[in-house]
Amino acid sequence: MNNSYDIVIIGAGVSGSAIARELSRYDCKVLVIEKDEDVCCGSSKANSGLVHAGYDAKPGTLKAKMNIRGNELMTALASDLDIPFKRIGSLVVCTDESRRSGIDELYERGIANGVHDMQILSASEVKELEPNISDNAVCALYAPTAGIICPFRLNIAMAECACQNGVEFVFNSPVISIDRIDEGFCVKTSAKTYTCSVVVNAAGCHADDIHNMVSSRKLHITPRRGDYLLLDRSCDGFVKHIIFPQPTDLGKGILVTPTVHGNTIIGPTAIDNDSKDEAPATSEGIAKVIEGSSRNVKGLPLKQVITSFSGLRSHEDGGDFIMEEVFDCPGFFDCAGIESPGLTACPAIGEYMAGLVADKLSLRLKSDWNGICHDVVKPFELPPEDREKLIREHPEYGRIICRCETITEGEIIDSIRRPLGAVSLDGVKRRTRAGMGRCQGGFCSPRVMEIISRETGISLDQVTKNGGSSKIVYGRTKDEI
User: Fold this and answer.
1) What CATH number was assigned to the domain covering residues 379-462?
2) pLDDT 10s digits, 145-161
3) How many CB atoms lie within 10 A of CB 16?
4) Partner of 200 for a Cys bridge, out of 9, 16, 249, 276, CB 3.0 to 4.6 A?
5) What is the pLDDT of residues 340-377, one digit of tens each?
6) Residues near 52 by Cβ (< 8 Å), separated by ≥ 6?
7) Domain 85-148+223-312 has CATH 3.40.640.10
8) pTM
9) Helix, strand or coil for residue 327?
10) Which residues are catalytic?
11) Contact yes or no for 207/337 (Cβ under 8 A)
């Protein structure tokens, strides 16, 4: 690998991957540097999977502009990248008559931002849409343009598309330092050193650390933990829309929503976290999830919880997205403070940031760019005759490895062999859903590990859950005779 590039992007979450995909349209040499073992390992791996309508952000902010544009772009992007996406609409529920005016204010904010087709519904209209809504519901803001998406597939597909169009990726490479040189920048990682003309900082919770390496005007990001509960797919249909409480200064509150895969998700909390990397769910956080969700939805089937998890949002002190060339470091571009609605906004973030960089370097568009990608082949989503033909030609698609999610050996092999393929259990999980079902990998993990070992050539005791020191096998219980 030649270590000289036109552009280095730091971070392979949804923002970095979206920027990489948009820059892959241009005739330039791009490298994405990721500190973890895969794409979608930071904030992007643990969120609500929502495409927000855009009524929440303050008018005129980058959050508002990127939300609206990202929502507009999402239908075409999901189609091009073969991503599950459904516009199911959202409800912001008021359960206190004294706060009814807050729903009117959200509606007016949405109008100012450019959200289409919103309505304020009466209590009876809300209950007709959602029979399990709280009996205390007074009214709700209905926004039909809101939707649900697979956040893992969105991140991974954008990165795969960038890769197939020439963008290079390196993993397990934390950035140690960035220095100015005559022709641009010298970016030193734990593994290698790279030179480039432009740096794009899309490092999530670490974006302030990266920015502060080069600028005298310091940024400060607070990692804000969100705890979640995930319900089994047997609860599919318990709610049909995204159900929010009225928002607070800390965020949009504890929501209840279906997922594109038929689960129900509840959360998140908003708790400032000490670590930028580790955010284990806590009993305190889970208690807040249960308490908050029960205010808007009655009879939650909590006995069907199959797992809890948490993620981190990168809250910058100014409260808005930062998307600009750094004033005292020409050629260094920040994409920082990308918290909610960052997932929704990522197509617009990619478009906007790539535009800034393309203008800076006077880049020209390619004539042969290909923006189409395809998901892992899922035999049980095919018509029976097509599935039978696939299994005849490729018997591995007839061997079920994950029974909870009906995932076959062929899908797991595909997830490993495809561009930027999986190298860990979590990497396979995010690409195929193997291990995401009711048993949470209790039965299928050993078989998935064997397939990873076989396909990658690494020994079984080197297979990890999510890279680094997260090994699963440490030795034999008995010596072979």
Assistant:
1) 1.10.10.1100
2) 999 999 999 999 999 99
3) 34
4) 9
5) 999 999 999 999 999 999 999 999 999 999 999 999 99
6) 67, 71, 90, 146, 340, 341, 344
7) no
8) 0.97
9) coil
10) 52
11) yes
